[in-house]
Design goal:
Elements (H helix, E strand, L loop, with lengths): L5 H27 L6 H25 L8 E5 L2 E5 L4 E5 L3 E9 L2 E8 L5 E4 L7 H7 L6 H9 L6 E5 L2 H7 L2
Antiparallel strand pairs: 1-2, 2-3, 4-5, 4-7, 5-6
Helix pairs in contact: 1-2
Length: 174
């Protein structure tokens, strides 16, 4: 017998990062009101840390989709791997030249284009796609706001979210 309904547990799990950040920010505000000269500064820094973590948590939460699409995504040491029922593959973060969001076969997918290698298509709601947010954040010049805007935008338009600059491509090659 579960103490919490499954729907409530799923909602709490989805919001856990934001809730932890709120507790940290509240603790910082509490420390800041204890008086003295040093505690308001320390409390303000802790509250700012909590606020920053909350913003990142909200962005991660907006990026993650329900796992309704087939397949599993894994991100291990800079390599993105997708295991799908009919297709799959891998892409190293250093080899990705372009990330686009498009509709393919009625589902929204991330298209990871590589200069040397196959193009990898990953459904946005495949299991484990939440890990892509942190992986994509490691790419130079990627704007996470643009990433979220593409997800929230109309589904029928293909959108290029990130493209590696030409001079970065030249430096990358040995």
């Amino acid at each position: 017998m579960a103490l919490i309904r499954p729907e409530a547990a799923a909602t709490l799990a989805r919001w856990h990062e934001v809730m932890v950040a709120a507790v940290i920010a509240t603790g910082g505000l509490w420390v800041g009101t204890r008086g003295g000269l040093l505690l308001p500064v320390v409390g303000g820094l802790i509250a700012a840390l909590g606020l920053g973590l909350g913003i990142v948590g909200l962005r991660r939460m907006r990026f993650a989709r329900d796992g309704g699409d087939p397949g599993i995504v894994q991100v291990v040491e800079g390599q993105i791997t997708y295991f799908g029922p009919s297709e799959g593959g891998f892409a190293g973060l250093s080899t990705i030249d372009e990330i686009a969001l498009l509709t393919r076969g009625g589902a929204r997918v991330w298209r990871l284009s590589q200069a040397e290698g196959d193009t990898l298509y990953i459904p946005t709601a495949a299991s484990g796609t939440a890990a892509l947010f942190d992986a994509f954040a490691e790419l130079p010049g990627l704007d996470s706001g643009m990433l979220l805007a593409a997800l929230d935008g109309p589904p029928d338009l293909p959108r290029i979210v990130w493209r590696r600059r030409a001079e970065a491509r030249l430096r990358k090659r040995p």
